[in-house]
Write a structure and sequence with these properties.
Layout: H1 5-13, H2 16-33, H3 39-48, E1 51-52, E2 88-92, E3 98-99, H4 101-114, E4 118-121, E5 127-132, H5 137-145, E6 163-164, H6 179-189, E7 204-207, E8 222-229, E9 232-239, E10 251-258, H7 262-276, H8 287-294, H9 296-309, H10 315-321, H11 346-353, E11 354-356, E12 362-367, E13 373-375, H12 376-389, E14 394-396, E15 402-408, H13 412-420, E16 436-437, H14 451-467, H15 473-476, E17 480-483, E18 497-506, E19 509-518, H16 523-526, E20 531-537, H17 541-555, H18 562-578, H19 615-640, H20 644-663, H21 674-686, H22 699-710, H23 717-742, H24 746-749
Parallel strand pairs: 6-7, 7-8, 16-17, 17-18
Antiparallel strand pairs: 1-2, 2-5, 3-14, 4-5, 4-13, 8-9, 9-10, 11-12, 12-15, 14-15, 18-19, 19-20
Helix pairs in contact: 1-5, 2-3, 2-5, 4-12, 6-10, 7-9, 8-9, 17-18, 18-19, 19-20, 19-23, 20-21, 20-23, 21-22, 22-23
């Protein structure tokens, strides 16, 4: 008889292959604990099971995970209570965001038992649990698998969660419900042999219509937009999109792929990516780089050629033939909302959190989750409410909220009161108050500035203005998105107002900053990416957001939308709006500027290392790098004005100026000639890897080397925009490099 019969019971409820995979992971985990499996080899295994490491140098939320003593860094230890790996993060895939009340209750239980009682909804509709001990992950995975949820390939070089519009099936303008097709793609690709040899991750998304925000397909590795042609269902298929440090717009692979052919076509895309995609240089390994290098015509030819080589597989059509027509059915009969007295706050909640759906008599209700967080208690309350009002019609959203569908209009007051009891009835969903943010420095090892801290501060200020009716409706309609670094996990590129974290050396110390991004567009499935207009101290970022919205209200013409206003003003005028907030005060003038949001300690970047202090050198670098920042701003303006060749030239010279600023820290007599600058910078900073950081390695330095080698500015907008983005990132990397070289020792900084 099994020593743990509950495991046998769970196994009987799981798919056999899922149970076997978890058993294998548990065996590998045991080998790693015994030191018989290399950490590098094990890392890929645990990442493919959704198990991440997380940071602990930020002083955040320590009381939430300290249930058992844990040594750090991770290393095997001995003793009866052995914990050889610091608690980390468990990512859980929720295809198209669809979750049932039973699944939500299991997630709540797991958050309570293994985590810090918080379910975090991500910008890709996943659920994340933080501060999870790795020894607990196999049992956690079994309990998820027993209710039909997997963590397989939630991370790693694999096909990530398949996302879709949370309104799929109830949207007024959709061609058809894409939810069943998103589920079919997940099932078909999960563990498929043709998706196991990627150089990097692969993110698919579905949208039911062309012109709304929906699934944001234009920023994905593969995107599927529902279309009906001659009564036949199919998809417009796009490939090669992505945000990250340098965003790419997806390109059209097929204007119409019938639904019965989209799985084999996706398999062909995967095979081409696995065969030709970069494997050695991870910084160039996403499919967007392959599509850009080959060109969409050649990539399309290779996919068509690959399709002819794929052996017959009945699943190509079986998955689709067995699909339901839609991904949701109503639990209760439709009924109109009757007149009558309402609980205080109901009308404000209804105004922004409730929208009609295609089916008459029903509504969609958005549960506004601050920072994407929901407690275990709240998750159980939401599961109870769902059972009463909507059944299985629950979705997570890329805006980090929960969505209830098929709510009978007559049930809205009762639902509101049920949500109110556990703090789930906050108003202002999908508005400027509903700020999106990645984890940032709270838990992410790549975080530079506190994206969640800034988001919380902005949310509080904007919610206060909203409650007092100080926010104009045009401002309420805007969206703010924040990332803790340049990688755009908070999707700052597609926000009306975006921020991403960086830092600057000021007064012999480091000060947290945020780069301001303007001009992004969520509509048209993420049709336009914003551009940087300037970096401001973190503490000034809330005033910047408010100044921009006020300038918009005062300066717009008629019903002019924010993106139209941005385009009309241009980068130079926009820079003027934020210019008063760009000045960084000295430590004596404003010591609070040297402490990030949600942190009590003086700001530092622990992962960047410490070097010798050189006060005069910092001053020289600061003077020199200002020229680089001026040039990259000129590049942005040229791009804005349609001078794409000029934008490329300015971007190139901005990188040269930043490289020269570093070189002059050590070799004051370096000249102005590009060959000399690049030669000295390469020898002193690139080949020695001093320019490399722990995570990006030589990625940003390669931008300069590649641009210097070709020196042929393009006349094409997308390529020029990438060059400008690369220059901005090179300058940020130069700042980080200077910080490592010239960091003030901790004892001196606190003296």
């Amino acid at each position: 008889m099994s020593a743990r019969p509950w495991k046998d019971q769970l196994a009987r409820q799981m798919q056999a292959d899922w149970a076997d995979e978890i058993d294998q992971f548990e065996a590998q985990l045991e080998l790693r604990k015994q030191g018989r499996l290399d950490e590098k080899a094990f890392a890929e295994t645990r990442l493919r099971r959704g198990v991440y490491g997380q940071r602990y140098d930020n002083g955040q939320r320590h009381d939430g995970y300290a249930t058992r003593p844990v040594p750090f860094p991770d290393a095997p230890t001995k003793g009866p209570e052995t914990h050889w790996h610091a608690p980390g993060m468990q990512r859980i895939k929720i295809p198209y965001g669809g979750v049932t009340p039973q699944q939500l209750e299991v997630l709540a239980d797991l958050a309570e038992e293994y985590s810090d009682e918080i379910l975090h909804i991500t910008t890709r509709q996943d659920v994340q649990l933080h501060f999870v001990h790795i020894e607990d992950t196999p049992d956690l995975m079994r309990r998820l698998a027993a209710v039909g949820i997997t963590t397989r390939e939630a991370c790693g070089n694999s096909v990530r969660n398949v996302t879709a519009c949370p309104l799929a099936g109830v949207c007024h303008s959709e061609a058809f419900d894409v939810s069943p097709y998103a589920q079919a793609l997940m099932r078909f690709l999960l563990g498929h042999p043709d998706v196991q040899d990627f150089g990097r991750k692969f993110k698919p998304a579905f949208s039911g219509c062309e012109h709304e925000a929906c699934g944001l397909v234009q920023m994905h590795d593969a995107g599927y937009v529902a279309r009906v042609r001659d009564g036949r269902r199919g998809f417009k298929v796009v490939v090669g999109g992505g945000l990250g440090a340098v965003p790419h717009q997806a390109l059209v692979l097929s204007e119409f792929t019938p639904v019965e052919e989209f799985l084999i076509e996706t398999q062909a895309v995967a095979r081409v990516f696995a065969r030709l995609g970069e494997k050695k240089n991870r910084n160039r390994a996403r499919i967007k780089f392959l599509v850009a290098a080959l060109g969409i015509e050649e990539f399309r030819r290779l996919v068509q050629e690959e399709r002819r080589e794929i052996p017959p597989d009945p699943r190509h059509t079986d998955f689709v033939d067995a699909l339901p027509e839609t991904g949701g059915q109503a639990l209760r009969q439709p009924a109109q909302l009757a007149d009558g007295p309402r609980v205080a706050g109901f009308e404000a909640w209804r105004a922004r959190n409730v929208q009609s759906q295609r089916q008459a008599g029903y509504c969609v209700v958005t549960i506004n989750l601050p920072l994407g967080d929901m407690t275990s208690k709240q998750a159980r309350a939401l599961a109870d409410a769902a059972r009463t009002f909507v059944g299985d019609n629950l979705r997570t959203s890329v805006e980090q909220n929960m969505v209830l569908r098929f709510v009978a209009e007559a049930d809205l007051p009762a639902l509101y009161e049920a949500l109110l009891e556990t703090g789930l009835a906050l108003p202002d969903a999908d508005s400027i108050v509903d700020v999106t943010a990645c984890p940032g420095t709270d838990t992410c090892k790549l975080g530079i500035a506190s994206s969640r801290g800034l988001a919380a501060e902005l949310r509080q200020r904007l919610a206060t203005k909203s409650a007092s009716a100080e926010l104009d409706e045009a401002v309420k309609a805007l969206r703010i998105k924040i990332s803790g670094c340049f990688n755009s996990c908070g999707q700052h590129h597609i926000a009306d107002i975006g921020f991403y974290g960086n830092s600057r050396g000021v007064d012999g110390r480091r000060m947290p900053h945020f780069q301001v991004i303007l001009g992004g567009q969520r509509q048209e499935n993420a049709a336009t990416y914003g551009m940087a207009v300037g970096s401001v101290p973190s503490r000034a970022a809330p005033q910047v957001a408010l100044a921009l919205t006020e300038a918009y209200l005062q300066g717009r013409e008629g019903d002019e939308r924010f993106q139209q206003w941005i385009a009309r003003l241009g980068k130079r005028a926009l820079r003027g709006v934020i210019q008063p907030f760009m000045k960084a005060p000295t430590y004596k003038e404003a010591p609070e500027f040297y402490v990030d949001w949600s942190d009590a300690r003086e700001f530092s970047i622990g992962d960047l290392g410490v070097g010798e202090c050189a006060g005069e050198v910092v001053s020289l670098f600061g003077i020199e790098v200002m020229r680089a920042e001026s040039l990259v701003f000129d590049a942005q303006c040229a791009l804005d004005e349609g001078d794409y060749k000029g934008a490329g030239e300015h971007a190139y010279h901005a990188m040269l100026a930043a490289a020269r600023a570093l070189v002059r820290m050590e070799y004051i007599d370096v000249g102005e000639a590009p060959d000399e600058i690049v030669s000295e910078w390469r020898a002193r900073f690139f080949e020695t890897e001093r320019f490399f950081d722990r995570f990006a390695k030589g990625k940003f330095g390669q931008y300069l080397l590649d641009r210097h080698a070709t020196n042929t500015p393009t006349g094409e907008r997308a390529a020029a925009a990438r060059c400008v983005e690369e220059a901005q990132l090179f300058i940020e990397a130069a700042h980080a490099c200077e910080a490592r070289i010239s960091a003030v020792p901790l004892a001196q900084a606190s003296a």
